[in-house]
Structure formats: C-alpha cells, structure tokens
Amino acid sequence: MRKIKKWLAPLLVSALMLGGVSSALAQDAQNVLRWTSPGEVTTMDSGKSYDVISGEAISFFQESLYRLDAQSQPIPALAAELPKVSEDGLTLNIAIRDDAYYSDGTKITAADVVYAARRVVDPATGSQSAKDLSFLANGAAVAAGEAPVDTLGIKALSDTELEITLTAPNSYINQELSSSLLAPVNQAFAEAQGANYGLSADALLYSGPFALSGWNGTDISWQYVKNPYYWDKDNIYFDVIDVQVVKEVATGVNLYEAGELDGARISGDYVNLYDGTDDLWIIPTLRMTNLELGVSSSEPLQNLNLRKALLYSINRDELSIAILNGTDAPAVATIPDGIASNPENGKSVAEDFGGQIYYDTAKAQEYFAKALEELGVDEVTLELVTSDEDKQIKEGQYLQSVFETNLPGLKIELSNVPSSVRFEIMMAYDFDLALGGWSGRYDPTSYIKQFETSYEHNHGKWVSPELTEWVNQLETTDGLDFALRWEHLRQANQYLIDNAVVVPLVQASYTYLITPRLKGVVTHVLGTAADVTRAYFED
After folding, report:
1. Does the first or last residue of the chain, that is N or C, have fewer Cβ atoms within 10 Å of its Cβ?
2. CB of 12 within 8 A of CB of 22?
3. Using CA atoms, how far apart are residues 185 and 162, in angstroms rounded to an integer?
4. Can you tell me the distance from the alpha carbon of 46 to that of 181, in angstroms, rounded to the nearest whole number?
C-alpha cells in the first residue's frame, strides 16, 4: 500500500574556505545521498528567501533557533532549550548553545541572531519577507521605514542570552522561531561580502549541518558537504548530499530506476505506477495551490464578475483526481484544512468554512457574460504563467482547457518559464494569471495576510482597509482569544472569496520516490516536506 504520512502527524572533514567547502573533496566523498530539486534556486540568502524551492535549499545549511520534529513540534536547535516566557507572554528569554559554530570555526552568538533579524526588516536590505517578522515588537514599523532598525524587539544580553519582545502574545511563537529568517548571520562576514553576500557558495557562512558547495547563483546542480563544526555533527550521517535540478518527472524516474538518484519528486500517472511499492511516499501538507490574479496589472481582472467567473468554472474534484491522481485535496477555503479548528465546537476549516468554493458552470457563465458587457468587449485574452516543471505544466493546461471550454470568449495563453522566472514575474507585480502556491506559517493568519495591502507577497496588489484591519486584529488585539481569532479568520476568508481576490485550487501533497534503504527521513506539513539532513542508509 502507499506509504502515506498521516495528516499533521506526519566522516568527511572538508577543507574549508571562507564559508565555502572544497567541491573536489565533495566529489571524492563515498557516503553520498543523491537528491533532487524541482527548480532553480532564487536565492541562498536566508534573509531574502521567500519561495519554497529556496527555503528547502537553505534548510540544509542554515540553523535557526528551533527546528520542527516529525510531529511539527519545535525542538531546540541553535537554542539550547525552549524559550522562557514572561507572565504576560510578551518577553522571551532564549539561551544560545555554547557549542554553536559556523563552518569556518567562528563562534555563533546571540548578536548574530539579532543582526539577522534586523537585516531582514531593514528596508535597505530589500527582503521580500520583512513583514514575516512582524510578530517581533516594532517589526511592522521598522519594515515600513517608520522606526529605527535598533528598536526591533530583539536584543543580545550576552553572547549566549537572547531577549525577544513580541507584538502580542503568540501561541505559535516557537514555530515562528524556527523560521530561517532568524538563522544567524555574522555581521563582519556579511558586510565584508557586501552586495555579493549569498550570491555564491563562497559568499556565505553556514550554521547548519551542511555547507553549500558548487553553486554560483545559476547552477542547476550543487552539493551540501558535511559541516565538521556543526554542534550535532555526530547525528549527521552523509558526507555529501549531491543535488541536481530535475524538472521532468520522467527524467527523475529514469535516473531513480537507474540507481543514479536516491530520491525523486513524481506526479501524474507515476503515482499510480508505483502504488503499492515501498518507494512511494505521499506527504500531505498545508501548502495551498492557487490561481493568483494580477488585479493591479491586468485591467480585465479588475472586473469582479470576471474574477468570479474564473472562481466558479473550475471542477476541483476533477483537477485533483484526473490531473493530480488524487494526491492533492480540493481546496475548501483560502486557509488549508487541518491547520486549526473552531475552538468552540472543534469543527475543521472544511466543516466550518466549507461550501464557499465550488463548481458551477452556469453561474460562471452568468458572471462572464456580465463581465464582457461591463468591459465592453466580445472576448478576453489572459496570459497564464506557470513553472516549466511537469506538474505545473499539466495544471496550467487543465486550467486553459477549462476556462476556454466553460467560458466561450475567454482565451488563455500559457507561458511556462523556469520557477525562478515565475517568482520574479509575480514579485514584479506584472502579470495576468499565475499558478502559485502558498505555504504560509503555522498561524492561519499567514494565509489571509498574503493578500493584505502592504504585504510583499500580495502579488495582485489588492487594496483593502477591511482586510488590513482583520490582519492587525489577528496579529495584535486578538492575542490568545482563540474564539475571536477564529471569527476574524472566518470573516477574512469570506471576504477573499466574495471578492474573488484569489482562486484556491487544491491543497498540495508532495509525492516522492525514495529508496527503501534510506531511513531517518522526517516529513513536515510546512517547509521542507522530506527532510533528509539526518537521514542515513540502512543496508
């Protein structure tokens, strides 16, 4: 039967250069895991990372205060223990472990975490994830350029003592502190690199179990080489993890069957082909796959009826079963099912928010007819941007067929581009339609916040004072009042659907072929779906 991870339960000592590792030694290593990436990495700079592919790459070599175990619970990483929390829930004291070192032997201190956090929110950095640290006191104000960087709610009391001040009590704070945005950055090293920081393997220092090698910004293959200075190196078993970008599923399967890969992402008919084998892993996640709408840049999509026509013309059950082989679940809301439940009756998102997103061809056509009349045209042409990997290409082709069939007069032009280019297009806020995904964070607010007016990843540049107010309440005054939080989540979700700000499609799963002799793989519902940093071969 399928090896399906249950929902929400889911020594080489290298010659070190300045933060980099000899690729020649990496190639000579014997204990090697051969792994894949589904696309090019946009950045290896943990302070600027914003997409899943880059985040997964960074997770191999940067260590944050905490990491998540197989049950998605935070456990100490760079921190020696879980935070000590003040009675009012606003102040955290965190001890940094004494044996934490970078890949060049430099000691990691609390000041490095402070610098990392300040660097993310500093407008001069241009991080596209600055608002993700708004849980830190003054975080939003600093990111908006309205407060000095040194007023951010984080400071070093000593080399091993960190104090964090929160905007409001936060029940998700330990998960938030596992973010790679808080991975330590050595200020002297970063400033010496200047504009080159993070643009190549040699322009980074590594705090995690591996160091990056053989990557110069655009490479489609690279290595992670074991970091001999890592505090937990005795529990890191591979000398090298050799990674190559594989976009076509057939290519990955062929390499896997030939024994040239130990793990490969698959989709489509290959899921059924390997059904019943020990090689198949299906990992459900909290990642939403959405059709994003470039409202600010696409004049036709400023029409509400056109957006609603798109929303109601998609049969999500068909998309899930016929195109995605049932591995991805039909979306029930803008918030993923399973992330939280109604505190008063225990109902899930599907049970409590469900019924808002459904398939109705007649209603879609009615909305489309109104849209054409209001726009004063007989037809509309929109470009749909997807990544050039198999799964997104198929999803894009399905949407093209559905829209053109159900909405006569609508023409969809497909543009399949490298994932890094798709990210750049969306972050330039200049597109019609784009197939996107959103992993958010463990706080459901992060799925609503994506469309808040000032948020960097509000790709359609949707403007809504109401949505801003809901997000502000969720992140501040709601505090630990879970009933009030749930009601605000419900209202914000309803608003997004009523205004067709986004078209939710499916809730994603990641599907892998993994050699059965690979043990110690940890799965996550958010972040890196299959974490192999502590994996090992068992013959």
Report:
1. C
2. no
3. 15
4. 6
Cβ atoms 226, 236 nearer than 8 A: yes
Q: Note the pLDDT of residue 19.
A: 41
3-state secondary structure 14-29: CCECCCCECHHHHHHC
R_g of the chain, CA atoms, integer Å: 23
Q: How far apart, in whole angstroms, are the C-alpha atoms of residue 474 and residue 466?
A: 12
CA–CA distance, 466 with 460 (Å, rounded to integer)? 17
Rounded to 5°, angle at Cα 286 from 281 and 292: 115
CA distances from 128 to 423, 450, 462 (A): 11, 12, 17
In angstroms, the Cα distances linking 178 to 63, 138, 439 are: 9, 20, 14
Contacts of 491 (CB under 8 A, 6+ apart): 470
Residue 41 CA to residue 39 CA, distance in Å, equals: 7
* 15, burial (CB in 10 Å: exposed 0-12, middle 13-18, buried 19+): exposed
Q: List the one residue out of 535, 519, 537 whose CA is nearest residue 3.
A: 519
Side chain identity at 509, as an amino acid letter? S
Half-sphere exposure of 442 (CA within 13 A, CB side): 18
Query: Per residue in 344-389, pLDDT tens?
Result: 999 999 999 977 889 999 999 999 999 999 999 999 999 999 999 9
Mean pLDDT of 483-501: 96
The single residue listed with the structure tokens 């049950």 is 71
Q: Which residues are within 8 A (CB) of 56 and not within 5 positions of it... i.e. 6 or more apart?
A: 37, 527, 528, 529
Q: Is the pTM of this model over 0.70?
A: yes
Exposed e or buried b for every residue in 248-277, given b needs 16+ CB within 10 A? ebeebbebbeeeebbbbbbbbebbeebeee
Q: Is 73 exposed, middle or buried (0-12, 13-18, 19+ CB in 10 A)?
A: exposed
Cα–Cα nearest to 53, from 32, 65, 75, 37? 37
Q: Residue 165 pairs with which residues in a beta bridge?
A: 91
- Domains of the chain plus CATH, in order, are 3-244 (3.40.190.10), 286-509 (3.10.105.10)
The size of the chain, in residues, is 539
- Give the C-alpha separation, 406 to 399, whole Å: 10
